[in-house]
Amino acid sequence: MGVSKQFVQPSGDILGAAGFILSGGIGGVPTETVYGLAANALDERAVRKIFSAKGRPFIDPLIVHVCDMAMAEKVAFLTDRAKILAKRFWPGPLTLVLKKRDCIPGIVTAGMDTVAVRMPSHSLMRKFIEACGCPIAAPSANPFGYVSPTTAEHVAEQLADKIDFILDGGKCAKGVESTILMLSESGKGHKLLRAGPVPVEELEAALAEEIDASPKHNEAQPQAPGMLKSHYSPHSRLTLFDCPSEVENLRAENVIFFTRPTSPESNHFWLSENSDLSEAAANLYSLLRKLDKISPNGFFCQRVPNTGIGVAINDRLSRAESKL
Ligand code: TXA
Ligand code: MG
Hints:
Elements: E1 8-9, H1 14-22, E2 27-29, E3 36-40, H2 44-54, E4 63-65, H3 69-75, H4 80-89, E5 94-99, H5 106-109, E6 114-118, H6 123-132, E7 136-137, H7 152-159, E8 165-167, E9 179-182, E10 190-194, H8 200-207, E11 211-212, E12 238-241, E13 254-259, E14 268-272, H9 277-294, E15 299-302, H10 310-321
Parallel strand pairs: 1-8, 2-8, 4-6, 5-9, 10-11, 12-15, 13-14, 13-15
Antiparallel strand pairs: 2-3, 3-7, 4-7, 5-6, 9-10
Bound molecules: threonylcarbamoyladenylate and magnesium ion.
């Protein structure tokens, strides 16, 4: 779908974007992870529009984005452990699930008494939240269940007719959604709800406590739908593999490799030029979206080394592969 240039706000027009938010509108905004679909977190009617634009079920709570600690304190109760992590990882791609304050409407948290809070590091997003002067509820700016957007064009392609503006902040630097951590009060039983750019080992080191990196959850009532077996999923069939030799005979198929093959063919694509996991993460969703468009009979993608941000990449790939 095409979109007029005026619709994608040039990166400088923060006040214009904030104006839409303050009058109850919704729009695409850049973060360092993926683009979000923003509304004033304190405005129940505006937040409702997010759910209908995404086709998102109301049981799926939203992340609330803040620009400083004072705003974080207004939306949630920050425990000592939360403050330690905030000091170390905010602003940045870490979301903390905390006890919510009364000002956050139930629609944001799916009626739960906890709220997911994060302080993004993208400079345009931070200025945007400051200009709005209110916490910003924002899920990823994609139809529910589909691959997240990492450029303003991705947002426009799928949501242009359902939203009021897009603030163009360029390509997202990290490329996969934030790490989500649910802290326990006792210090035992912290749960990693979603792997992301901040590796679980770094969180454990900062807390000097253990985190359960694969908590059991009920498939019918997951604590984060990002944990659903099938999510982040292209329309075309995706098949994963580990070794390049597994796909050698599949000449007719489009294939995404982790790193550039020595003699690539026209149906070969790669996440990184030279085995760099951060580069691979930043390119992941653009490539999945591209191959989804050009591969009606399905396509293949190689798993990456399962370390650092590679854990989050492999997590998204296996959910994208699963159709269950
Ligand atoms: O990087 C990100 O986190 C991006 C950018 C835009 O900030 N946002 C994002 O939002 O990925 P979304 O809605 O696509 O994923 C947020 C996840 C959901 O799976 C949701 O269930 C979980 O966070 N979540 C939100 N509030 C929660 C809560 N109170 N308890 C447990 N999980 C929660
Ligand atoms: Mg999402």
